[in-house]
Amino acid sequence: MQQSNSTMSNEIINRVASSPILTLNLEDMYLEGERLVLDIKDQLFQGLILREKDFRAFIKTHDWSLYQNKFVAVTCSVDAIIPTWAFMLVAQKLEPVAKAFVFGDLKALENYLFQQQLNTLDIAAYIDKPVVIKGCFDKPVPVSAYMEITRILAPHVKSLMYGEPCSTVPIFKKKV
C-alpha cells in the first residue's frame, strides 16, 4: 500500500513562526544607562528641617557633574517637610546634565522612563492584529508598563495576550 506524499511528509511545521501573532517585547523599551538616587535627607538640619541658606549653599557647591548622562531619582527618604522650591532648585541643576530625572524613588524613575518610551510607540503595525506582550525578560520592566501597553493597545488590536506566542494568557479579544 502506497501513501500519498502529504501523509508521508514528516516535516515539522513551526506554527508559531507562521502565525499572524505579533510579539511586543517591553524589554526592548528599556533605556540603558546608570540610575542614581539623589536623597536630600543629608541636607536637613538635625535630620528634620530644610534651611534655605544651607540648602542654597549645597546647591551651589554640589558636584552636579556626578549626574552627567544619568537617570536620577530625587527624593527625601526621611519623614520631613520639604518645601517645593527645594526640589525645583535641584531640578534646575539636573536639567542640563541628567538624561532624565523624577521626584521619587528608583521605581518611580523606571515607571517614568517606560512611560516616555510607550508614548513614542507607533501602534500602526498592531492595528487589528493579534498581539502578545512578551512576559519573560532579563531587564526590569515595571508592572505599570504592562498596564500602560494594555491601555494603549486594547482599543486597536484584534486580541491582546500575555506570555510567549506558544503559551499565552488571553487578556482581551475584540468582539466581532
Fold and architecture overview:
The protein is an alpha/beta fold and 176 residues long. The chain is 28% helix and 20% strand. The protein has two domains: 14-31 and 120-173, no CATH class; 35-98, no CATH class. Helix 2 (52-61) runs parallel beside helix 3 (84-94) and helix 4 runs parallel beside helix 5 (143-153). It is built from five helices and seven strands, in the order H-E-E-H-E-H-E-H-E-H-E-E. The strands form two sheets. Strands 1-5-6-7 form a four-stranded mixed β-sheet, covered by helices on one side. A hairpin with a 2-residue loop joins strand 6 and strand 7.
List keywords for this structure.
5 helices, 7 strands, four-stranded mixed β-sheet, three-stranded parallel β-sheet, alpha/beta, 176 residues, elongated
Can you tell me the number of structural domains?
2
Contiguous low-pLDDT stretches (5 residues minimum) are: 13-18
Question: Structural class, please?
Answer: alpha/beta
Element-level helix/strand string = HEEHEHEHEHEE
| Rg calc | 24 Å
Quick check: average pLDDT? Answer: 89
Give the N-to-C terminal Cα separation: 47 Å
Strand order of the largest sheet: 1-5-6-7
Summed up, the helix count is: 5
Mind describing the biggest β-sheet?
Answer: 4 strands, mixed
Total beta-strand segments: 7
**Strand portion, in percent?**
15-25%
How much helical structure, as a percent, in the residues?
A: 25-40%
The shape is elongated
